[in-house]
């Protein structure tokens, strides 16, 4: 994953620019003729310990001569030159002109690291000035041993005495100074990462081996004098980094008083509300829910007792005044409303029409959806994640487009992780294995359009020297022959990667071990348990531009599987790997891998539905079976359901709306749940009508009875899904569109085509014709057994009537049901609050995907977080505000409107001096952007910011500074002059500067102090020198060159106007191991940027490559609740309009809400996260909940008798259809999904669908009947015309 590599870790440091630069300062040689032995050293004021130039070592490093001469008075020119660098040295000195030139040439390498903090730089220079030129050198330096070099005695070791306070103050003034381009500290370079002054002094005093950087003689820093009382440890003045005269920025000196008083802008985390109850500390929400639940139970118990007494008294008077099926005088049925009369009349007439003209109705109703299916010619599937889960109005999407357009797209990542599960991986054999693997990768070739593509053709190569491969092999310059043994040098480079030239990478930049190793604690790199090899590859904005990279990635993955994996396993190690295109390819494979499982699931549901609707006769005679079965009717109904789905897809495809895999997987499931339920209700309702009625009358009565509830459910579902189009997330919005259209078409087909099929099938059965051979007719008497028979559905009806209904009518059972369901509802509310947003990457991949192990290894071994950029829009670097303002006012002379002039004045006043609002060196604002980022990194647990930011602006200002006299230089002709260790200033041999050419002898610094205003360049100076900086190569003499490190960090398009359109400052998140970490880190970065933008009056936003995919989780709760609430409101409105009863609408909506909340509670129990998939399922659950609730409630409403009798009648008539049409159908299909290869189907379809079906069944057929029996709405008579009532009455008597 692209979380472990630093894009701009490509800084060129000639040889690490660390202690060697500083320690070479110690090369202050003495003349051979003036040498003296250590025993002759005089420790007194005015005496030297070393003086003059002396010999040199075999590797060319010059050596000092032990010389106890008196300090020498320099000539006036030398004195002025010494004081320009060493203002504390005056009068006599202990250094010659050559010594001083050596000192000056060496400190120039360290100055760019420290110039941003003047106090540290001054202290650092004073330290070496005292050491080299102090007239009292002998008081704190003892030469402890000498050696012969060129037949001359030279210094081989010294003792340097300092006070402990001096050492601590010197270290404290420099310990926090940043080196921005590598997001690290300057101490890593000038002190080897020292953590205290003792380590710093030990680093600077270490004797360098031949040809290795460092001091030519050993220096032992001592804080106690045990030899002679004449020694006076150095206790020179040390400036605090918070000193007002030499003040450093808060980023370089967070301990200063000014910074301590400047509180960082950190994200505020709301602590979860808890209540202390003895040893228990429950959440406030849990406690309140428990109190409400207990209070509700008490209130309901009191109410139940009072109602029981009333009913007992009433029962004594008229207990047997009514029988079941007759109207209860205590529950008089209301007359149907005008709306219900109108609906019943319409459906009755429609039923008569369909029964008389089935074929025309069937043909017309099927032709229209078939025409819609023609839109499939434009069918396309959207698989791009950003087009599915990211809103077009997404901030992350706009920010990524801005970043890619104005800066550069984030690079592509190809990665190998080699792990040793049993211990240390840094061994000789394992490093040799790395070289073997690297050789195979280097030799790898891909074929793209007939051209051979190698890694070097596509890799990130910031300086054109070598690929920026992140591997510990960089410590060996990717050359297996450079060392005979590897472990010792690797361990050395782990500690000195930023300071030793021998550890420098082939792309001329220090390599942080944390980017190439994994599984270590703290900085204990030598005990790492994993190698992390990363190949950054250039990324283009278009897919076509990345075609070469994609071709190479394919062969890279093949190489890893077929060759590298066996090599790694042979050494007892594990391998995981990934490429930039791996996830997309594996997701595509996942979508096809489970196609068979999904197909089997639907086939099983089809088979069950077909058999369920079949009408197997009770006598089981062959003739009755051949005539009465309804297998073709069931199969036709299933085909109509699928036709509605295909027609919906075709309709939107015609208009260019792309489908998604979610549509293919979820909508058929939803359409079958709705359609099959309606088919069962229609068939069973027709069969319940009196057989002595003509078929037209039976169909008319049946559709008048069932139509209102089917319409109520259908319109509620359509509207509930349709409102989802307001949701910005494309996947949810597209699903809502397709689902609403599919349900609507399905509803129309049920009321037209399927109704016509019922008429045709009943005619066939009544004529005695065989189902599969309709032209064959049997004897009607032999086949008449189909008219009054019991079938499988009848058995369920009998169960509902004889057992289920009476059981729920029991008062104790009611009390238990209400208590249990209410308790689970409140529990689910509490559990829902614990529902975590996110979608684990491993879940969406096939179980056998090679990426499963890769993501596991990332979590286990990775110790580096993803880069995060703080992007500043329209940075105004204009410094000469007044002249620019006057120019603008002159240009506006022709503008009469005073308000426009005033507006421009305000704009300029806001934009002025933005440089100090951003930078973090001296004279920058204490609350500047970069200082605030540094402060935030000190609280990494809450801010998720791991390091200070790399700042091109800081480095540019330092590079421009006259103090950094080897950086910004110019020839006499005013053109750019590079540092002395770069061509054409010196001759280059294999990338190394050998001898000076003299070309740059006349180069001068770009500016004097007097040329700058308050240490800042003017607008014209900024404009002129910024391109120089970005093209300047970093080297030993000037490590601040911007080429490579900052090439893509700012957009110079149109910057001549004084405004830089986009500039980025890179830092890192802390390691992110969980989905919640990604979400929380993005939320923290955005909150932080928002507050910065407000306080600095600048437009700032954070950007990281993963933000676009995790932004949805910032608002996923809002998305879910908005969709669910709107859907439930739509259900309530439709129910209230069609039933003309707010009571009924409230019950249906309330139970649907309970189903959704309980499903969310079960999601928490099962560990299912809240994401787009689960939101779609939650929205779908409303549709399923309506099916479970509407039909039972409608049947209860039109039944007569007391509430218990009406509840039993509703269960016996509609309960069987709901149970067999929804519950059993879904169960047989869901079980198959358990065997899917991808966990996403197991988690979000098997587990969640199974939970939905069980919860819906329990609420629809257990809780809802009990609730209706207690607080159900009053009954309403069905509207039946007088002539049909007479026929119905005769039919009932006849029956």
Automatic annotation (TrEMBL):
Keywords: Disulfide bond, Glycoprotein, Lipid metabolism, Lipid transport, Membrane, Signal, Transmembrane, Transmembrane helix, Transport. It comes from the Eukaryota. Residues 1-32 form the signal peptide. It is a multi-pass membrane protein. GO terms for molecular function: sterol binding. It is found in: Endomembrane system. Coiled coil: none annotated. Residues 594-760 form the SSD domain. The chain crosses the membrane at residues 287-305, 599-618, 630-655, 661-683, 734-760, 812-833, 881-902, 1120-1139, 1151-1172, 1178-1198, 1210-1236, 1248-1271. GO terms for biological process: lipid metabolic process; sterol transport. GO terms for cellular component: endomembrane system; membrane. Belongs to the patched family. This is SSD domain-containing protein. It comes from Rhynchospora breviuscula.
